[in-house]
UniProtKB/TrEMBL annotation:
This is Indole-3-acetic acid-amido synthetase GH3.5. Residues 349-434 form the GH3 middle domain. Belongs to the IAA-amido conjugating enzyme family. Signal peptide: none annotated. It comes from the Eukaryota. GO terms for molecular function: acid-amino acid ligase activity. GO terms for cellular component: cytoplasm. Residues 449-564 form the GH3 C-terminal domain. Keywords: Ligase. It comes from Acorus gramineus (Dwarf sweet flag). PANTHER family: GH3 DOMAIN-CONTAINING PROTEIN (PTHR31901), JASMONOYL--L-AMINO ACID SYNTHETASE JAR1 (PTHR31901:SF5).
Length: 586
């Protein structure tokens, strides 16, 4: 009876979603109206003379497109404690921090109850669709989730990552219970101050509840890969803890130690079972279903920069399906994965039309002729006007713009998305890349996606060496004349000189942007450089960001390290063990 009630509850969520998306255009107009009415007294909106208008035409005619830097002075006043309505009608009481892994500095973003509400809506929606395909029982989830540090701004507002704000609210616990996704680990582990100790305890708690675990998840795919790379090193110690019922001395935080010790009882039978299973695995293939036999899938964000980790994740997951989670950012949510059977490489996100007001800037370049006085005219490119949610076209790419309930108005998120189809009248988006992550020296423009494709192509040459690419990033080196691309690789083993030289050439030839190819041919861009760094280098990058207060749940490895990210660049350069220059285009 209870299972029938749960199933009915999830079906109601789907019915609500279907109703919203059948008339997405009308819902968008209503959503904008609600946002503007709630925040109509805000100083920022008042300055544009809307005069109470809430229709999309008036709004777009008066309120400009902005980036975070345009709103920074307003956000700074909020963090300093100014209590007047600056960006929102109600005073902001919390600040969300972006990861800071792209530019080397975290951005401050207003956080409010509406963002918590939309987070729970996204969780419930994607779970309802996921549970149709992969039904789970009311067990537990092995979730590798981590809270970030909290601090008070000068004005007394609580500042932390968006995930930390969410993990600490009552709605999160209630929602996890409703969607049968309660974490194996106690709160003391999730909110523990030491990442390594928290990871150890997550693994231990997961093994204690191994028969009850229904799925394995982390915010990002690399979190799961890192967890099981660590497991390879410490599994015997975990077995000892379970066998003896005594927690390892490596866990020293009193609150964490006390909470996990309450769960830990001597269980030599379970310890022996884990030991036998691990001992018979071949290179840890399929370790997840072997140790968690009732798990139905592995879940996390697996798109964009996370695609690098899919090969290793599939190795650990064996036959278990990988399901990519939902599409959002520190600024807010965009869409839910309502097609969970799609592989991560093809996943799309159906936009929820009531969580924000969305616009899309077409990325087709439009030519126009400009008069240059007596010198005649020239052809230049101009940016196209944004279109609405229901006006996008299948197959086209767009830059995403949104207006949120938390004080971001016509905010350029910086993400490039492609429309793959429609769910009723709301678009299904595929995340392509971050727009500002560009490798460029003169006329060349290579995006994060272009870089990733080049790396994938080059790493094919490593197969015969039986070594894997652990991680990578890039840098534009302008200290040489001409400037050139630098690609940093960390490998799982020693590669031969001939193969690494071939990889370097393959990387160079795999950037197919016309501006890059032509510039290489005429030598206005120098030969690409491949720098191999020592093992553990990318973990040092993680440690650096953790030291800055970034939560592991929010950490993404920067794929392009620019000059403003000097410390990360220094770590990379100080750990180079081999360097190769491309001989392509010679």
């Amino acid at each position: 009876m209870l299972e029938k009630m749960e199933e009915s509850k999830h079906e109601r969520v789907i019915e609500e979603f279907e109703a919203l998306t059948k008339d997405a255009g009308r819902v968008q107009i209503e959503t904008l109206r609600r946002i503007l009415e709630l925040n109509g007294e805000a100083e920022y909106l008042q300055s544009f003379g809307l005069g109470g208008r809430t229709d999309p035409e008036s709004y777009k005619a008066r309120v400009p497109l902005v980036t975070h830097s345009d709103l920074e002075p307003y956000i700074q006043r909020i963090t300093d404690g100014e209590e007047s309505p600056i960006l929102t009608g109600k005073c902001v009481t919390a600040i969300s921090l972006s990861s800071g892994t792209t530019g080397g500095r975290s951005k401050f973003v207003p956080f409010n109850d509406e963002l918590v509400k939309s987070t729970m809506q996204i969780y419930r929606t994607s779970f309802a669709f996921r549970n149709r395909e992969y039904p789970i029982k009311n067990g537990k989830a092995l979730q590798f989730i981590y809270s970030g540090k909290q601090f008070k701004t000068r004005g007394g507002l609580t500042a932390s990552t968006a995930t930390t704000h969410v993990f600490r609210c009552d709605q999160f616990k209630n929602t996890m219970k409703d969607i049968m996704s309660q974490c194996c680990s106690p709160d003391e582990v999730i909110f523990g101050p030491d990442f390594s100790q928290t990871l150890y305890c997550h693994l231990l708690c997961g093994l204690i509840y191994s028969e009850e675990v229904q799925f394995i998840s982390s915010t990002f795919a690399h979190g799961i890969v890192h967890a099981f790379r660590t497991f390879e090193q410490i599994w015997e110690e975990l077995c000892d803890d379970i066998r003896e019922g005594v927690l390892s001395s490596r866990v020293t935080v009193p609150s964490v130690r006390a909470a996990v010790s309450k769960l830990l009882k001597p269980n030599p039978e379970l310890a022996d079972d884990i030991y036998r299973k691990c001992s018979r695995l071949s290179n840890w293939y399929g370790v997840i279903p072997e140790l968690w036999p009732n798990a139905k899938y592995v879940y996390g964000i697996m798109t964009g920069s996370m695609e690098l980790y899919l090969k290793k994740l599939r190795h650990y997951a064996g036959d278990l399906p990988l399901v990519s989670s939902d599409y959002g950012s520190s600024e807010g949510w965009v869409g839910a994965n309502v097609n969970p059977l799609l592989p991560p490489e093809s996943v799309t996100y159906a936009v929820l039309p009531d969580i924000a007001y969305f616009e899309f800037i077409p990325l087709r370049e439009e030519l126009e002729e400009q008069e240059l006085g007596n010198t005649g005219s020239t052809i230049v490119y101009k940016e196209l006007k944004p279109v609405g949610l229901t006006e996008v076209k299948i197959g086209e790419e767009y830059e995403l713009v949104f207006t949120s309930f938390a004080g971001l108005y016509r905010y350029r998120l910086g993400d490039v998305v492609k429309v793959r189809g429609f769910h009723n009248s709301t678009p299904e988006l595929q995340f392509m890349c971050r727009q500002n992550l560009l490798l460029t020296i003169n006329i060349d423009k290579n995006t994060e996606k272009d870089l990733q494709l080049a790396v994938v192509e080059a790493t094919k040459l490593l197969a015969d060496e039986k070594i894997e690419l652990v991680d990578f990033t890039s840098h534009v080196d302008l200290s040489t004349d001409p400037g050139h691309y630098v690609i940093f690789w960390e490998l799982s083993g020693e590669g031969s000189e001939d193969v690494l030289r071939a990889c370097c050439d393959r990387l160079d030839l795999s950037f197919v942007d016309a501006g890059y190819v032509s510039s290489r041919k005429v030598r206005t861009i120098g030969p690409l450089e491949l720098r191999v760094v020592q093992q553990g280098t990318f973990h040092k990058i993680l440690d650096h960001h953790l030291g800055l207060g970034v939560a592991v749940s929010q950490f993404k490895m920067p794929r392009c390290v620019n000059a403003s990210n000097a410390k990360v660049l220094q770590i990379m350069c100080n750990n180079v063990v081999k360097s190769y220059f491309s001989t392509a285009f010679c």
